[in-house]
Design brief:
Number of helices: 4
Radius of gyration: 17 Å
Low-confidence stretches: none
Order of helices and strands: HHHH
Number of strands: 0
Strand content: under 5%
Distance between the termini: 11 Å
């Protein structure tokens, strides 16, 4: 892999991580400040200290970065909306459904999982739109595979 491709991947990852993290931070403040305080069902969304928030933001940054790098390789030169949407949905489902592995009572956590799933789809969709916008403006190049 040549250095220029690595730089483009780094740019894609950083841009996606930034947009994902900003979106995630906004939704986290809304979830923690509004939903968790008004509905007892959503109390697990509440952030109780700064360390908890920073860990969540760090994980969001990493998720966004990995999405950006991968998305650049997924779309290549293709303008297939199903491929682009599928990348968003695949990443969002993996991130949004992770609590299923640790949740004991899924019937009580149904709405919580729904909120987390929607949040993940929103964050990855915003990251995708940001990357598509950067590619459209030629700030970022798609992966050009040639052997």
């Amino acid at each position: 892999m040549i250095v220029a491709e690595r730089i483009e991947s780094l740019k894609a990852g950083t841009l996606a991580a930034f947009s994902f993290t900003v979106t995630y931070s906004i939704t986290t403040v809304i979830n923690s400040g509004m939903l968790a305080k008004q509905f007892e069902l959503f109390t697990p969304l509440q952030i109780t200290n700064e360390v908890d928030f920073l860990v969540r933001v760090a994980v969001a940054w990493l998720s966004g970065f990995l999405f950006g790098v991968t998305y650049r390789y997924i779309i290549r030169q293709d303008d297939n909306s199903h491929l682009k949407g599928g990348a968003v949905l695949a990443f969002a489902l993996v991130r949004g459904l992770t609590p299923v592995e640790v949740e004991q009572n899924l019937t009580e956590a149904f709405w919580l999982l729904g909120i987390l799933g929607i949040e993940s789809i929103l964050c990855f969709a915003i990251a995708r739109l940001t990357l598509d916008w950067a590619i459209h403006l030629h700030w970022l190049k798609t992966f050009n595979y040639t052997e």
